[in-house]
Amino acid sequence: LCDNISVIRLAEAQAKAAQATKVLIDGKDSGAMHEEPKQQIMELANTLMPPQVPNAHNGVGSEADRLMQFYIDVLKGKVTTRALNAYLSAMVGNGRFEDAWRIFLGYYERFNVPKDGWTFQKMVRLCARTRDVPSAWRVWDEFKAWRVDVEKALQTPGNETLKSLRTKVYCSEDKNSAPANPKEQNGANGDSVAFNRASQDMLALAERLEFPGANAQPAIVGGGSLAVIPADREIARKPIGCDMQTEHATYIEMITLLGSCGDFRAAVHLIREEKNGILEHAHNPTMDDVNSLYQNAMLAGDKHAAMDIRALCMQKPAHQARRALHRKWGTSFSWDLTDPQQKSLSRRLPESFRRHQSPFRDGEYVTTRQKK
After folding, report:
1. What is the pLDDT of residue 255?
2. What are the start-end ranges of the E strands in the chain?
3. CA gap 236, 229 in Å, rounded
4. Is the C or the N end of the chain the one with fewer CB within 10 Å?
5. Which residues neighbour 185 within 8 Å (Cβ) at sequence distance 6 or greater?
6. Mean pLDDT of 229-242
7. CA–CA dist 19, 13 (Å, integer)
8. Does any domain span residue 59?
C-alpha cells in the first residue's frame, strides 16, 4: 500500500512539473516552442522530484533544496520573503543550522528581499536550539533595528525616541575570559568580551549581520489609506510579522533561551520591556508563558529573579481570585512553593510558620487599613 501511494504521489508531482514546463514553453517564441518539447518535459520531471518520496528528515531537506533551486533557476521566479522564510524554516526544522545561517546572511541580500518578523523569529528559535546566546543577541539587535524602521515608516506617535542601539549591557559574560580593557570596551569591539567561546564559529557568521537600511514598509494599509489610528497601524504590521501576537512569540523565544542559559537578569529585562517598552504593543505575559524561565530561576536559587518574574507576569485567574478573597476577608493561605525539594523542606517547619497573614502580593507591599 505504501509503495502504491508513493507511486501515485510521484506521478502527480511529475504531472505538475510537466504542466509547468508546458506553460513555460508556450510563453516562448514560436521557434523555440517546437524544439524537442517532450525531451525538455522529461528532463525537468526527472530533475525536480526524487525517485522515492522522502521518508526522513534528510530527505525533506534535500527536497527543499531541490524545490528552491527549481524555483530560482528553472521557473525564473521572483524570490519573495515568504519563499525564503519557508526555505529557512525547513533548514531550521531539519537541523541544518549552517545552511540556515547561510540563507539568513546571504540569500536575502542576494535577491534584494527584505526580512520580516517571521525571519527573525525563526533565527531566534535556531539560536535557542543551539544555545547560542551571542549570535541570538546579534539577531536580536537586527530585529530591534528593523522594528524601529517599521515604526518610523508607520509614523507611530513616539517613534522619535526610538534608537537602533547594539545590546551591550544585557549580554552574557564569559567568566573564564580575561578581564576586559576599559579602552577596548569603548571601541567598536567593546562587547567582544561578552561572547561565549563555545560559539566562535557561529559568531564569525553573525559578525556579518547588518542593520536593515530601506527595508521599512510604507505607511499604507489596505484600501490605500494612511495608517492614522492604532488599528490601521496594526493591520499594516500583520503582513510583515510585526503584529502583537507574532512579536510576543519572538520575545518568548528569546526569554526562554536566556532562561535556559541562566541569564535571568536579561530575561527579566525583556519581560519588562515587553510590558512597557513597545509602542502600541503593551503585552502582559502570563506565568504560563515564562514557566520554563521561572522553574530555572527557582532551581538556580535566584530568589530575586523569581520574585521579579512573579511580579511582572500575570497569574492564573483562579489564583488571582483566591488571593483577592484572602485579602478581602483577612484569611490566611499557604506559601506557593513549586519546587518539590522546597515543599519537602517546608513540611518540616511548624504550621504557624507555613501559614501566615501575608500583606505582600507578588513582591509588592499591600497597605491595609487598621480597623477602628
Report:
1. 93
2. 333-334, 355-356, 360-361, 364-365
3. 11
4. C
5. 191, 193
6. 81
7. 10
8. no
